Every structure is written in C-alpha cells, then in structure tokens.
Amino acid sequence: MTESQVRHPSLDYMREEVLPTAFCPGCYNGILMNALFDAFREIGIRDLKKIVFVSGIGCSSWIPSPYIKADSLHTLHGRAIPVATGVKAFNPELEVIVIGGDGDIASIGGNHLLHAARRNMDLIVIMVNNLVYAMTRGQAAPTTPLGMKTPTTPYGNPEEPVDVVNILVNTNANYVARWCISNYVQLKNSIKDVLTKYKRGFRFIEVYAPCITYVVRRENKSPGEKLRELMKICIPYTRYKSLKPSKRRNLIPVGIFKAEDKPGFIDRYRSFVNRLTQARE
Ligand SMILES: Cc1ncc(C[n+]2csc(CCOP(=O)(O)OP(=O)(O)O)c2C)c(N)n1
Ligand SMILES: [Mg+2]
User: Fold this and answer.
1) CA of 30 to the centre of ligand 2 (A)
2) If you measure from the C-alpha of residue 227 to the centroid of ligand 1, how many angstroms do you get, rounded to a whole number?
3) Which among 10, 83, 202, 252 would be 20 to 30 A from 115, CA to CA?
C-alpha cells in the first residue's frame, strides 16, 4: 500500500463527501479537528450518536458542520450557546459541544457565554481564538491584541483585548482551560478530560490559534514558523504569573485554570423540580 492509499484515521469521524474542507491551506482548524478525533478514539467513542455539535457563523463554526459525522446545528452568528442550552435541556442524555470563533463566542455571543457559565450549564464550549473575524476578512475582534493592524484598525488596534479565560475562572463554570494550537497533547487531553472526568457543568476550552490568512501571513510567517513561535511564547500560567508584568508582554499563559465537578444546571434543575413536586404531593 502506498502512502497516498493509507486512510487517515480522522476520516472515521468525517463526512468524506464534503471534503476537501473550505479552510485555507495551513489553517490551524485542521489541527483542532485532529485533536478532537484523537480524543474520541482514545476514549473509545466510535460513533458520535450521543454527541450533538452546535455552532454559529464563522470559519471555526464550519468544523462540526458540515465536516463532522454527527448531528449538528449550524445556527446564527453569536447564538450557538443558547441553542445548545435548548438541546441539552430537552435531552440531557446528549453531550452537547459548541465549537465557534472568538467573535461568535466572545463578541456578539459574549452575553450568552457569561450566563451559561453563571448557570454552570452542562455544555462543552471550544472557542477558537484566531484573534480576528476571519470569515468576514480579518476585521478586529474583542480578542485582537493591542496595536495589531487589521483592515478595521489600519494604524494598529487602539483597544485592549478581552481575556475570556480570566473572566470565566471567576464564574460558576466547572472547567476552564486555554491551550495554544501548538500544545497538541495538552489540548487533546483537555478534550478527553471534559468528556470523561468532568462530565457536568460548563466546560470551556480556549484554543489560541492565530488566523493563517489575516494574522500570520501579515507577519510574513509561514504556518510552520508561527507554530514554532507559539511553542516558545505559550507558557504555563503558573510561570507566567511569577514574571514581572513588563516581562509578560507577548507571552500567552496556558493551562487548566479550573477543574471542578460541581453539579451543573441540569442536576440542579432536576432536584429543584423534584423538591417542588414532593412538596405538592
Ligand atoms: C448577526 C450577524 N452579524 C454579523 C454577521 C457577519 N459575520 C459572519 S461571521 C462573522 C465573524 C466571524 O468571526 P469569528 O466568530 O471569530 O469566527 P472565525 O471566522 O474567525 O473563525 C461575522 C461578523 C452575521 N453573519 N450575523
Ligand atoms: Mg475569529
């Protein structure tokens, strides 16, 4: 068998009829997809019948729909989390996974994110932070670093970016992690964590993966060069915290910031309804 005839194991979880993907050559979304599929395989999830994916609009929202062989809802920009909440509330037996962009989840959908975390809603949310609104051609997002040039900030972004992980750590969310796309094993292990050890409540993973076309190419770097750079600048948050603020510039703190297994909204709501029903009887 020649190399070109070897079937890629990720194809077990993909709809081959819609390939190739619409992603730009070198886009890091492919690495995230492989991490997701490796996690499924290592856990022993063979088909995805118990998983429903929900996404909004954006490049990263294409990951589940149409490419993953599972039920998925491709919803409105910013509204993936409320739709996912509805799916989970209707059928708590399903594992509901939201995959979306930083614009989708932290900008237009930021309010939904905050309240799903406050409720500790039983959802897994994977946010691809590519630093821009990629699908609409690279405009600045709330995650765009200070000073970065984009088509809407041609003289450099005058605003400070939001740190979603920092906000979510201080909510009722059960699990909060950030990994760079260069942290393949850690990212895969986090996905395994939220599918096995931490199965309840709100579980959030930020994947820091700068857009190849509108960020990396503007820096005159290849996808491979940027990956090697990320390997140096993405450092454990414990080490990041020990540095003087002046030394932290351009570094990305990564790790599992919070991992708890408190009952999520579904369990809380069930016991709430049971209590009310018993009181009436
Ligand atoms: C309500 C609404 N507003 C704006 C848009 C236009 N729009 C489509 S995708 C997008 C941003 C995508 O950025 P992000 O969510 O970060 O995903 P990415 O493409 O970067 O993965 C915008 C503004 C839309 N489709 N619907
Ligand atoms: Mg984006």
Assistant:
1) 15
2) 25
3) 252
Task: Tell me how far CA of residue 6 lies from CA of 33, 43, 169, 201, 203, in angstroms.
Answer: 19, 23, 43, 39, 35
| H-type alpha helices, the chain | 29-43, 80-90, 102, 110-119, 164-169, 184-195, 223-233, 237-242, 265-280
279 C-alpha to center of ligand 2: Å?
Answer: 49
Q: Does domain 3-280 have CATH number 3.40.50.970?
A: yes
pLDDT for 4 beyond 90: no
Q: Is 168 helix (H, G, I), strand (E, B) or coil?
A: helix
User: Residue 60: nearest ligand to its CA?
Assistant: 1
Q: Which residues surround ligand 2, an ion (CB under 5 A)?
A: 101-103, 130, 134
pLDDT in tens, 46-65: 999 999 999 999 999 999 99
Q: What is the pLDDT of residues 236-261, one digit of tens each?
A: 999 999 999 999 999 999 999 999 99
Tell me 212's DSSP state.
I
At 3, the pLDDT band (50, 70, 90 cuts) reads low
Domain spans in the chain, listed from the N-terminal domain onward: 3-280
Predicted local confidence at residue 176, as pLDDT: 99
What residues line ligand 1, using a CB cutoff of 6 Å?
Answer: 57-60, 77, 101-104, 128, 130, 132-136, 141
Q: Give the residue, out of 27, 79, 130, 136, with the most ligand 1 atoms within 8 A of its beta carbon, to mutate for a pocket test.
A: 136
